[in-house]
Structures are given as structure tokens and as C-alpha cells.
Write a structure and sequence with these properties.
about 220 residues; alpha/beta; binds S-adenosylmethionine
Length: about 220
């Protein structure tokens, strides 16, 4: 397999508009209409979501390989893998009873969970699209208008990336939101949790992990 490349960005450090953008989003309730296909997928999943003793989210789960691994780790919870890509989800492995895959847009799915009062105990975001171009700042989850909803979901959050700037910006956005319990570490990988993690580790990339408890604020 060809080596993969670390995202290259013309940004030398944190985006110079990061604080302004995040602060503005933190004062607004994002009103963009929900996509119909996300609502339909959410409604199909809702009975299982409501019945679950606890919820764990694998947001941007790709093919669902990590969803299966998380389901083995969190046996007392329903682990929900969410991805917008039909093509990736079509390659999902067999799922254990406590795992579920949903095709939906995360910016909808997170708001729908909140609307139903459903909160995950743990929330994993493994290798979100990095959007390294400065012009794409608002596509990064921490600078996206849905960021306040992501925080309001709560739970122990874990983000992994091979793009250090993304993780540092995410940490800064959490600080702006008053989240105090944030840790960023460099990861060494023995057993990759996801296909992208495997690809990046095999290519010798330095990998980063951020953990936070958005419920713990100043
Ligand atoms: C770089 S891949 C990582 C996949 C997997 N987590 C892994 O580590 O192997 C990013 C994934 O996020 C999904 N994704 C990106 N934006 C999304 C969105 N707005 N809603 C749902 N899924 C999204 C993509 O379809 C893709 O599968």
C-alpha cells in the first residue's frame, strides 16, 4: 500500500480567525434545517437508542471496524457508528448485538440526539477529515456551527488525528467553551483501532489523541 501523507497546510499555527469563529458559534443556536435522510435514519434507530442501557458514539465510523472494536470494549452499552458514506458502510464487518451503524450526517445526528435528550457516555471521533486548507476552517468540527451541540452531548470525548494542528485547535476551542478537563498526547499504536489509524501508523505518522469531558467546565 502506498504511504499516506500527513495533511499539509499553509497555516503555520492555529488559524488566526479560530477564536472569533468559535466564540461566535458559542453564542448562537445553529438553525440549519435537518436533512431528511438523516432524520429518517435517526427515527429508524430511535427505538434501539431509547432502549439502550448506555450509548457510545463512533462519529465518522467509516466502514465500522472501530464500531465493532468499541462494542467489544463497551459491552454494557449500545455502540452507534455514524457515517455519511454509503460506500464505506457497505463494507462493514458483521456487527455484534450491541453495535449499530447509521448512515447520516453528523451535524444532523448530533442535534437529533440532543432533541431527544439522549447523551452518550463516551464519544469517539477517530480521524475526522482534516480540512487542512485555511479556507476550510469552518468544516473542522471545532469551528463548525454544530460545535456547541457536540459539546452539549457531553460524555467522555476522544478525538484522534494525524494532523496536529486540528487537535491543537480543537483543544483551544474547548478552552474557549470553558472545558477544563482536556488532555492532548502523542499516541503510540500497537493495535490500530481503525483502518485510517493503521494506514497512518504504517506510514510512520505521528498520531495525536485528545480526551476531554465537555461536561466539566469553569
Ligand atoms: C478520514 S475518514 C476516517 C474513518 C474512520 N474513523 C477511520 O479512522 O478509519 C473520515 C470519515 O468521516 C466521514 N464523515 C465526514 N464528514 C461527515 C459528516 N458530516 N457526517 C458523517 N460522516 C462524515 C467520512 O465519510 C469518512 O468515513
Amino acid at each position: 500500500m502506498p504511504a499516506s501523507r500527513i495533511p499539509e497546510s499553509s497555516q503555520a499555527g492555529l488559524h488566526d480567525r479560530l477564536d472569533e469563529v468559535v466564540r461566535r458559534h458559542l453564542t448562537l443556536t445553529w438553525q440549519q434545517p435537518l436533512r431528511l435522510h438523516s432524520v429518517q435514519a435517526f427515527e429508524s434507530a430511535l427505538p434501539r437508542l431509547r432502549m439502550a442501557p448506555a450509548l457510545v458514539l463512533d462519529s465518522g465510523c467509516g466502514t465500522g471496524v472501530s464500531t465493532v472494536k468499541l462494542a467489544r470494549r463497551h459491552r454494557d452499552a449500545l455502540v452507534v457508528g455514524i457515517d455519511k458514506s454509503d460506500a464505506r458502510l457497505a463494507r462493514a464487518p458483521d456487527l455484534p448485538d450491541n453495535a449499530l451503524l447509521v448512515r447520516a450526517d453528523l451535524a444532523d445526528f448530533w442535534r437529533l440526539l440532543l432533541r431527544e435528550g439522549l447523551h452518550p457516555a463516551s464519544h469517539y471521533l477517530f480521524y475526522p477529515n482534516p480540512w487542512p486548507k485555511p479556507d476550510h476552517l469552518k468544516r473542522r468540527w471545532h469551528a463548525h456551527p454544530v460545535f456547541p451541540d457536540l459539546l452539549a452531548l457531553g460524555g467522555r470525548m476522544e478525538l484522534r488525528s494525524n494532523f496536529e494542528l486540528y487537535v491543537r485547535e480543537f483543544a483551544r476551542a474547548l478552552a474557549l467553551a470553558g472545558v477544563i478537563d482536556v488532555e492532548v498526547v502523542s499516541l503510540s499504536i500497537d493495535e490500530p483501532v481503525t483502518p485510517f489509524e493503521r494506514k497512518y501508523a504504517d506510514s510512520g505518522h505521528r498520531l495525536w489523541k485528545l480526551t476531554a469531558n465537555p461536561g466539566v467546565t469553569t
